[in-house]
Amino acid sequence: MDSTTTQLATERPPQAGPHLTGKMGSLGLFFSVMAYNAPMVVVIGIIPIMVATGSGLGTPISFVVAGLILGCFAVGFTRMSKVMPKPGGFYSMTTAGLGREIGLGSGFVALLGYFCVYAGTLPFGGIVLGELVHTTMSGPDLPWWVWAAVFWAGAAVLGYFNIELSAKFLTVFLFLEIVIIVGYDFFVFVNGGANHAGIALAPLLPTHWFDGSFSSGLLLALGMYGGFEVTVLFREEVKNPNRVIPRVTFAVIAVAMTIYAVSSLGFINALGIDKAVELATADPTGSMTGTLVQFGGTVFSDVATILVNTSTFAVILAGHNITARYLFNLSADKIFPRKLSTVHRRHGSPYLASMATSAAGLLMNLIAAVVGLGPLDLYTASLGISSFVILAVIFIASIAVPLYLRRHGAHHTAWSRVVFPVLGIIGLGTGLTLAAVNFASLVGGSTVLATALMALIVGLFVLGLVMAIIYRRTHPATYSNIGRQ
User: Fold this and answer.
1) Nearest-angstrom CA–CA distance, 323 and 326
2) Angle (nearest 5°) at CA 87 between 84 and 91
3) Domain presence at residue 412
């Protein structure tokens, strides 16, 4: 076998069973993953909350620590993506490292988490688009679900086609977001912050790391990096995955960490070191909007408001695409109806899984609208579920990765097989513990709701575990397929 054949053998996905196709490159994959993390929403909506109720002045460091934790995990994660060149993301990785029972349980839980990102963000999209049309553009004042339907339709259409089409839209949106964010940081830094006396670097000093609740800040910060699994989940649709996936994974973590840390430092300086926490606590959204106007002008602020809408749509579209691919992989393994793993002949997309995802998202939001559930309540609960679930799935995968590499990655160094993975496990385990302790606040503060949702999450994991055990005894062929094995 010559070198070219060997390279193709390691970079092409296994051809057994349904498989997707595509030629997405590094930039397309990078923008798809970054769009899922919604940097504009993080900068305008999350950073003020973190300053007010999280780490306070230590918010920039929270993002740095979270980025380093995920960077440690990514060392083993990217090595395993080369050793085990199979589709399925964390679902297949967890199965390969910890067995089919835990793998299927994790797959069910991950599907729930990503579906909540997609369907649960639709109400938020309805709110922000409605405010843009009614308040900024003096348009009609319509119910949230009317505007949410616009986002739903856009994701349903784009999700039907090849992933490269979605990647093009996400690239445009994210590029504009980054331009505005960098512009905001530039204006704040050039003007020397609130007092025009120069940028204070005090928030980076250890004396301010624990001014607020470092644990809450770390938990929120970890949640802002949640989409980098996409690099492996889209493996079949990426050209040269063995080169592209590691490159994009580390690029996403590094760029996100830089944007979040620098922007939070800029925001704190824009308010003034002495008043930042007080002003952010009094009015998180208003404090950020005020600094946008102060340092960038009204037009700059209006453009940022528009981009919050495009950023929200990017989250919905990315969440839709990820959910559809989880559904596709579970269907390819015959856990769900095999028909859902049908690949479009022309577009190479999981179009039936995409349509099923759209239908489920529409149904969930229709029920919420009919029963009169508040859009913010639905969004908060969904965001809390997804934050906890995705962190839990990453933690389980962080255990599976070094175990798999120990068996199949002897050619890798101890740093990539042991040291960095262990550091990642410790950091992610700490974050998961914090998320479990604070789960009620994550989903809106109701203890009854938190208990019910936690029961749903644990129940899904147990269901997957039990189903795998049953398949092992009654349908060994199906059992052997779990985790795209």
Assistant:
1) 5
2) 90
3) no
The answer to whether the CB of 161 falls within 8 A of the CB of 350 is no
Q: 339, exposed or middle or buried, with CB in 10 Å at 0-12, 13-18, 19+?
A: exposed
SS3 171: helix
Q: Let me know if residue 65 belongs to a domain.
A: yes
Number of domains making up the chain: 1
Render pLDDT for 276-324 as a digit per residue (tens, 0 to 9).
989 988 888 788 888 999 988 888 888 888 888 988 998 899 899 989 9
- 428: its two tokens: 């992610």
Burial of 445: CB neighbours in 10 Å, binned 0-12, 13-18, 19+: exposed
- Confidence (pTM): 0.87
pLDDT digits (tens, 9 = 90+) for 174-228: 888 899 999 999 999 999 988 887 888 888 888 888 877 777 788 888 888 877 7
Domain limits for position 142: 3-96+116-375
User: How many angstroms separate the CA atoms of 177 and 45, rounded?
Assistant: 14
Residue 445 lies in a domain: no
Q: d(Cα 208, Cα 203) in Å, to the nearest integer? A: 6
C-beta neighbour count of 138 within 10 angstroms: 7
The answer as to whether 415 is a domain residue is: no
The three-state secondary structure class of 464 is helix
- Judged by DSSP in three states, 365 sits in helix
User: CATH number, domain at 351?
Assistant: 1.20.1740.10
